[in-house]
Write a structure and sequence with these properties.
It is a single chain. The protein is an alpha+beta fold. The chain contains 4 helices and 5 strands; from the N terminus they run βααβββαβα. It has a 5-stranded mixed β-sheet. α1 packs across α2 (27-39). The longest helix has 15 residues, at 87-101. The two termini are 20 Å apart. The mean pLDDT is 91.
């Protein structure tokens, strides 16, 4: 597996992956929101098996009074056939290392309360 930064504004696969997570949103709306998010410092990393993109995770950094510099992770989604194969753990470890390199004191994310599989993964 290989992990790379993706060009959010130029890579339509990101929109396709976000639609897996948010199927009720149109491609146009996701693309517009991603463009706005890039202007706010949003980045995206992808985990690959050869040339196949298995999953993505978006991230941004910000500073909070209570915690200092924080990396916020969002839009974590994998192809169904790529789940439970270590790609998610590899991507989260990569993001944790990036957060440290960027001087972040905390890494945080959110998950839908009803998404029990995601919650179990993050708790591990």
């Amino acid at each position: 597996m290989n992990i790379e930064l993706l060009a959010v504004a130029e890579d339509p696969r990101i929109t396709e992956f976000v639609r897996l997570l948010e199927p009720e949103l149109s491609e146009a709306l996701i693309s517009a929101r991603l463009a706005e998010m890039v202007g706010q410092g949003y980045g995206c990393a992808g985990v690959f098996d050869g040339d196949v993109l298995l999953g993505i995770a978006g991230f941004s950094t910000r500073t909070h009074c209570f915690s200092g510099r924080v990396m916020f992770v969002e839009n974590v989604v994998f192809l169904p056939e790529a789940r439970n194969q270590g790609a998610g753990e590899a991507l989260m470890n990569w993001l944790e290392n990036l957060a440290r390199e960027l001087g972040c004191e905390m890494l945080t994310l959110d998950a839908y309360a009803h998404n029990e599989r995601a919650r179990a993964f993050y708790e591990r």
